[in-house]
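Notes from hallway chat w/ T.B., transcribed later so I don't forget. T.B. wanted the structure written out for a chain they're using in a teaching module, and asked if we could keep both sequence and structure tokens in one place. Agreed to drop them here.
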Amino acid sequence: MKITPLDVDQQQFHRVFRGCDPEEVHRFLDLVSREMEELIRENNQLKEELRRRDQQLVEYRQHETQLREALVSAGRMTDEIKESARKEAELITAEAELRAEKIVASAQEKVVRLSEEAGDLRLQKARLIAEVRSIVDGHARLLDTLEGLDREAGAAAPEVPRRVGTRG
């Protein structure tokens, strides 16, 4: 059974012969009652403080859980970002390699085309030289033939001076 300060205040004792001084007992009971009241108030305050701290502890634990989840989530996001960046880098590299291969293939085609054109030009040059040589040789033979005819004609006929402006 719990005793309250009111119980202490209202407590009645039987009177006996040669008992305690009632005034002194009442003063002591008043003192005990006030002290009990103070202890109960302090106990209630401590209980309230404990309840608040327990509530704070629960909140802190919730915050800790949330922080841990946020850290785990941030770690996952970091990993995802890294993986995405790696894949993007691979894609960029593949695209660059493909472009480089196309450029190299185009350059090789150009080299082949220019080589063919150079070969065609050399062939044309050789043909042109052969044609010019043939023409020069033909003219040289013609000149030789004309000189030979002139010598034969000159031995047979006296030379006739040519007139200026006339056709011979």
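Follow-up for T.B.: The mean pLDDT is 87. Might be a good example for the class.
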